[in-house]
Amino acid sequence: MDEAVRPHWIAVDWGTTHLRAYAMDGQGGVLARGHGLGMGALSAGDAGASRQANFEAALLGAVEPWLSDRPVALIMCGMVGSRQGWCEAGYLPVPQSLFNLCEALAEVPAKDQRLTPFIVPGISQTDPYDVMRGEETQLAGYVSQASGANSTVSGRVCLPGTHAKWARVESGAVIHFSTAMTGELFDLITEHSILAHSVSDDALDSEAFRDSVLAAYHDPACLTEALFSVRAEGLLAGEDGVRARGRVSGLLVGAELAGAKLEPGEPVTLIGAPKLCVAYSEALAALGLDAALLDGEAMVLRGLSDIHAQLVERRAISA
Amino acid sequence: MDEAVRPHWIAVDWGTTHLRAYAMDGQGGVLARGHGLGMGALSAGDAGASRQANFEAALLGAVEPWLSDRPVALIMCGMVGSRQGWCEAGYLPVPQSLFNLCEALAEVPAKDQRLTPFIVPGISQTDPYDVMRGEETQLAGYVSQASGANSTVSGRVCLPGTHAKWARVESGAVIHFSTAMTGELFDLITEHSILAHSVSDDALDSEAFRDSVLAAYHDPACLTEALFSVRAEGLLAGEDGVRARGRVSGLLVGAELAGAKLEPGEPVTLIGAPKLCVAYSEALAALGLDAALLDGEAMVLRGLSDIHAQLVERRAISA
Fold first, then answer.
1. Whose CA is closest to A254, among A290, A282, A232, A276?
2. Which residue of B162, B195, B217, B228 to mutate against A (max A Cβ within 10 Å)?
3. Does residue A128 have a cis bond before it (omega within 30 degrees)?
4. Residue A58 CA: distances (Å) to CA of A122, A301, B112
5. Is the N end or the C end of chain A the one with fewer CB atoms within 10 Å?
């Protein structure tokens, strides 16, 4: 019989589409993983107490095998802290030190006495208006890992995805950020627009991707014309879904990179799913820019671990 | 009892969403109107003969009260001539005189002997790839109306819509054109993206529209970031759906105008639905550019009337 998993604490990355739970040891290591429904499937329709019960049940489904009689701390980040989530965790304004997130943790009133859940706040900006929720924890992991004993990190960080974030970090603080709707537009265009039947389901021509990155980067005003041209090319020159997917993806990423207003030679740190980060690094390479790639899951766990360690120190909760 | 409508010929504008039929007298006047299903509702699933029967039935539903024993010519334009339509009408390449469309009419094999239907060809371009279908007939109407006895018209023409066309016309010919997916992206974003709940169903703040036109025109790379900012403003400053709709519309139109690469002071002719043309003329005015507005339906009928007159001349069909 397997020995029961008894984590020191539990890390939870709970976004719109997935709940990912990690049973953590005392040194930032992962003892076991669990998963469950994302916020999108839990928040629809219900309000108040019944919605909160849905969230607690989904969490228990993922972590119950790890629970004992002794209460355990859970540090959660992501859309679970939004207004439509389990419990609103608010936003900290920019400029914001990424070492400060622990100070604004929201304590979630769970019915199950074995759970002591907290949610990490998001970060907001008013000029121009923008919000992030979940990415602040990855950024906290990044500055924690990249900062030396006496220095803290600065630079441009991109977190590609449905809503790609571009953050300007100075001395361990986010001073400005923006959000490109690249992933969401890609999904809408390839699944619901007139291009849906022109684009392959998966494979992507990397030469078409690179050429389209350059075209949209150097002339972002051409974006929507160039998208329609993908459809026209299919009609006039024969359908090539793999090439079409490369073009749509490249055009959107190229326009995003133009919007990021990178300085010549400015290095970029990419944090996210490895496959997506590789695509972005190829796009940046086409522009002659270097990128460092960091795994998004590792950064979430590092950020949540630091926040948990601060919580233990400040509140003397059980570690 | 009403006198039966007996048209000299029938004009048909048959796009993706609507069939519009017009019983025409011999002088370009409209005796009566009919309507029916667009190509999108007729082409799905079926192929070959059964699809053709669907189209013929839809047409008869719109025009049958006007038919007598004597065959009548129908001149049709729009997506009815696409590969998924009733009968493919092909494309004429740019540069292309808009007085030549009659030469490439496709004759449709109708089962009902009372119908003698023809479809106007589209126009294609290979550098970059682009296609139009339906707009060529509006452009033909425009050059017919705007050309004097001894001169033909030149200028920039915009036909706003789901897929907005920008044509460069010289001496009555289309020499280059492009297609911005503005209308389709607006619908996808306001109905299916994270912005869906931030945007009002109808009313639009015209100051937000104008400001956003200018922002996207001067920095089209900001487009997707600015779209997400509409959502963030709703979260942080309170939802204002009328303002949000103005911003989304203005950002997309401003990016389209940047893509059109207009010369300073270059006048634009707008052809389309009056309300949409007014919005575009306001956007152009914000950039200091003048616009002439022409009704899209009037241009279709003028273009189809000219094509019919040429057909009568060349083939000696009954007028």
1. A282
2. B228
3. yes
4. 22, 20, 62
5. N
Query: Are A96 and A64 in contact, with CB atoms under 8 Å apart?
Result: no
Cis bond upstream, residue B128 (ω within 30): yes
**Contact between chains at B129 and A233 (C-beta distance less than 8 A):** yes
Looking at beta carbons, which residues of chain A come within 8 Å of B188?
A: 188-189, 192-193
**Residues of chain B with a CB closer than 8 angstroms to some CB in chain A:** 83, 91, 124-126, 128-131, 163, 178-182, 184-185, 188-189, 192-194, 220-229, 232-233, 235-237, 252, 255-256, 258-259, 261
Average pLDDT, chain A: 94
Task: State the burial class of residue A293 (Cβ atoms within 10 Å of its Cβ: 0-12, 13-18, 19+).
Answer: middle
Distance of residue B130 Cα from the nearest chain A Cα, in angstroms: 5
pLDDT > 70 in chain B, percent: 96
- How many CA within 13 A on the CB side of residue A285? 12
Q: What is the DSSP string of B104-145?
A: GPEEP--SSTTEEEEE--EEEEETTEEEESSHHHHHHHHHHH
- Distant-in-sequence, close-in-space partners of A14: CB < 8 Å, separation ≥ 6: A20, A38, A39, A76, A77, A78, A79, A80, A85
A40 contact partners, CB below 8 Å, separation of at least 6: A16, A17
Write out the residues of chain A at the interface with chain B, using a CB-CB cutoff of 8 A. 83, 91, 124-126, 128-131, 163, 178-182, 184-185, 188-189, 192-194, 220-229, 232-233, 235-237, 252, 255-256, 258-259, 261
Strand A122-126 and strand A164-170: the pairing is unpaired
Residue B104 has pLDDT above 80, yes or no: yes
Chosen from B224, B230, B261 to mutate, greatest number of chain A CBs within 10 A = B224
Structural domains of chain B, ranges and CATH numbers in brackets: 9-147+300-315 (3.30.420.300), 180-296 (3.30.420.310)
Q: What is the pLDDT of residues A66-110, one digit of tens each?
A: 999 999 999 999 999 999 899 999 999 999 999 999 999 999 999
Q: How many other CB atoms are there within 10 angstroms of residue B291's CB atom? A: 19
- The number of angstroms, rounded, from the C-alpha of B102 to the middle of its chain's C-alpha atoms is 19
Long-range CB pairs of B310-316, under 8 A, 24+ apart, other chains included: B310/B102, B311/B73, B311/B75, B311/B102, B311/B105, B311/B118, B314/B102
The residue ranking higher by pLDDT, B149 or B105, is: B105
Minimal CA–CA distance to A75: which of A111, A28, A36?
Answer: A28
Omega into A95 within 30° of 0, i.e. cis? yes
Best of B127, B235, B253 to disrupt the A interface (most A CBs within 10 Å) is: B235
For residues B121-134, give the mean pLDDT: 97
Identify which of B180, B223, B236 has the shortest CB distance to residue A255: B223
